[in-house]
């Protein structure tokens, strides 16, 4: 008798597997897919023993190195006793025969997820507290002793931006569906204009704690990848670690600022057009200064390079989303709409380089 659900896996078989491999797990179970997310499908698992979260690789043909749920499992496990708030993970299943692809099981954290960075349902002071807490978590992440938590082999140290530009250029070309001149421009300009302190790992005056050592970077650091306490301005868990690696921490900072520069709409919600001071949300300049104070920095040279790189990388990621959507293998109904943003994102990155956009 089949117990397959609409997601294409057998809930009875999954329950049997988890009862055997996860202490305290008891079936039967039901699976419900979470809304949102463009990459690794994520499910709420309701079982006799409680609620859990399952995150899997999507089915179908995938780009090499994409959807690395095993890397997510590894980094979350490593951070269990650190100052970075993470969920508790229970089990990684690398046997595709159980549900059709690799997956891991983690705890269900009951809290708040803020999908709109303008935080319309909060008061002015609450908004300030949320952004201050997010800044604290970012600094905590970049302060993790990677040797102490066993992540020295989690990525290659040095030449972070060169390697990232190479990687996402290849990923973009592999999923390209049309020519976008702004992406061609960025792929030429970025590797030719690497900041000295990051291309070779050298420090600059004033950039006194970054540049010569790799830190853990999240890769998708943003408000809706955090679960906040139900009532307090406190992060219970930073989630979605698929793109994490060892690298340069200014990437995570610039990536978050890049997202907040985007339009405040329903597709990719940024803070474009929002009066931040009136709303109680720190300006980009203030937010960056908060981070610098926490990390012992006095300035950030080449800020526009970091922002332009983030626009390029995000455009390359969304090109992959677009290709999967066109092939009928996307994880979200918004995928095609997001794919349409590749050219606008590339244009924003290009204009930063050309000096037409200011901080």
Give a written overview of the molecule.
With 359 residues, this protein is of the alpha+beta class. It folds into 2 domains: 97 residues, 2-Layer Sandwich (Phosphorylase Kinase, domain 1); 230 residues, Aminoglycoside 3'-phosphotransferase, Chain: A, domain 2, CATH 3.90.1200.10. It is 39% helix and 11% strand. The protein has 12 helices and 9 strands. A 5-stranded antiparallel sheet has the order 1-2-3-5-4, sandwiched between helices. Helix 3 packs across helix 9. The radius of gyration is 20 Å and the shape is globular. The termini are far apart.
Elements, N to C (H/E): HEEEHEEHHHHEEEEHHHHHH
- At the fourth level of CATH, the homologous superfamily of the largest domain is Aminoglycoside phosphotransferase (APH), C-terminal lobe
How many β strands by DSSP? Answer: 9
Label the structural class.
Answer: alpha+beta
CATH architecture designation of the largest domain: Alpha-Beta Complex
Helix content: 25-40%
* Tally of alpha and pi helices: 12
CATH fold assignment of the largest domain:
Aminoglycoside 3'-phosphotransferase, Chain: A, domain 2
CATH class of the largest domain: Alpha Beta
Q: Segments where pLDDT lies below 50 for 5+ residues?
A: 198-209
Rg (CA only)? 20 Å
Domain tally: 2
Q: What proportion strand?
A: 5-15%
Task: Choose one word for the global shape.
Answer: globular
Q: What is the makeup of the main sheet?
A: 5 strands, antiparallel
């Amino acid at each position: 008798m089949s117990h397959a659900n609409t997601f294409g896996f057998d809930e009875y078989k999954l329950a049997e597997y988890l009862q055997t491999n996860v202490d305290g797990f008891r079936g039967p179970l039901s699976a419900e897919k979470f809304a949102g997310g463009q990459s690794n499908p994520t499910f709420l698992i309701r079982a006799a023993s409680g609620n859990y979260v399952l995150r899997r690789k999507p089915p179908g043909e995938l780009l090499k190195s994409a959807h690395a749920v095993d890397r997510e499992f590894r980094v979350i496990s490593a951070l269990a006793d650190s100052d970075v708030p993470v969920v508790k993970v229970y089990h990684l299943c690398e046997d595709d025969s159980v549900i059709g692809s690799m997956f891991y099981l983690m705890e269900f954290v009951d809290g708040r997820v803020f999908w709109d960075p303008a935080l319309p349902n909060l008061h002015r002071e609450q908004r300030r507290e949320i952004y201050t807490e997010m800044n604290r978590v970012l600094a905590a992440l970049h302060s993790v002793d990677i040797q102490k938590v066993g992540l020295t082999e989690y990525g290659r140290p040095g030449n972070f931006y060169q390697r990232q530009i190479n990687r996402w250029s290849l990923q973009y070309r592999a999923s390209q569906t049309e020519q976008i001149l702004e992406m061609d421009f960025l792929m030429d300009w970025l590797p030719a204009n690497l900041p000295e302190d990051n291309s070779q790992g050298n420090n600059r005056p004033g950039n006194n704690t970054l540049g010569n050592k790799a830190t853990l970077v999240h890769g998708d650091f943003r408000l809706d990848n955090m679960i906040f306490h139900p009532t307090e301005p406190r992060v219970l868990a930073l989630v979605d670690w698929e793109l994490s690696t060892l690298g340069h921490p200014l990437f995570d900072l610039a990536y978050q600022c890049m997202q907040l520069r985007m339009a405040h709409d329903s597709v990719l919600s940024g803070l474009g057009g929002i009066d931040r001071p009136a709303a109680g949300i720190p300006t980009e300049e203030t937010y960056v200064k908060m981070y610098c104070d926490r990390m012992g920095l006095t300035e950030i040279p080449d800020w526009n390079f970091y922002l332009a790189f983030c626009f390029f990388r995000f455009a390359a990621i969304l090109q992959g989303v677009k290709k999967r959507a066109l092939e009928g293998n996307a994880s979200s109904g918004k995928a095609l709409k997001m794919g349409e943003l590749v050219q606008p994102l590339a244009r924003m990155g290009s204009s930063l380089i050309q000096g037409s956009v200011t901080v």
